[in-house]
UniProtKB/TrEMBL annotation:
NCBIfam families: sigma70-ECF
Name assigned to this protein: RNA polymerase sigma factor
Residues covered by the RNA polymerase sigma-70 region domain: 15-73
Signal sequence extent: none
Coiled-coil stretches: none
Gene Ontology biological-process annotations: DNA-templated transcription initiation
Organism encoding this protein: Persicitalea jodogahamensis
Molecular-function annotations in GO: DNA binding; sigma factor activity
Ranges of residues in domain RNA polymerase sigma factor 70 region 4 type: 108-159
SUPFAM superfamilies, sorted: Sigma2 domain of RNA polymerase sigma factors (SSF88946), Sigma3 and sigma4 domains of RNA polymerase sigma factors (SSF88659)
Keyword field: Sigma factor, Transcription, Transcription regulation
Cited Gene3D superfamilies: 1.10.1740.10, Winged helix-like DNA-binding domain superfamily/Winged helix DNA-binding domain (1.10.10.10)
Length: 170
């Protein structure tokens, strides 16, 4: 296969690779970079492609391996090696374990806010929270579905207002 024929075939197959790149990276720009890296590697290694085999499968394999290599490189770059006596590997990503006291206080506040809701709003809200569908809540409480939706909306709005202090902590 000539370089021109190979380039033409690459161009035809590249359109089917974009969704796969998006699935791997979950980002449009990263997917475009991955696709470009794959095409470059395929073109520079075209002599390794065996004529008559599945070009699409060959490109998918190149893309998957390129993604894995880039991912491993990124993880290594974000890993700090502690050279103290214990020799711990510490991941330097912004991960931390919070004190459980904060969570306990937050849950107490959330529970108190829910308990302070008017019963007309609290009941449908809690049923929805527990997994009931709108039509099931409407049937159980014998009220119209629009009323159920409205009461849940009002309950959420009230809870958001009462727990506003927690939105500033992020």
């Amino acid at each position: 296969m000539t370089a021109l024929e190979f380039t033409y075939n690459l161009d035809q197959v590249s359109k089917t690779l974009r969704p796969f790149a998006l699935r791997l990276t979950r980002d449009t720009e990263d997917a475009n970079d991955l696709l470009q890296d794959t095409m470059l590697k395929a073109f520079t290694n075209r002599e390794k492609y065996t004529d008559g085999t599945n070009l699409k499968a060959w490109l998918y394999t190149i893309m998957k391996n390129t993604f894995i290599t880039n991912y491993q490189r990124m993880v290594r770059r974000k890993t700090f090696i502690d050279t103290t006596d214990n020799l711990h590997y510490i991941n330097t990503a912004d991960n931390s374990t919070d004190n459980q006291a904060y969570t306990t206080f937050a849950m107490e506040d959330i529970t108190q806010a829910i308990e302070s809701l008017d019963g007309a709003y609290k009941t449908p809200f809690m049923m929805h929270f527990r997994g009931f569908k709108y039509h099931e809540i409407a049937a159980k409480l014998e009220i119209p579905i629009g009323t159920v939706k409205n009461r849940i909306h009002i309950a959420r709005k009230e809870l958001k207002r009462m727990l506003r202090v927690y939105s500033r902590l992020d």
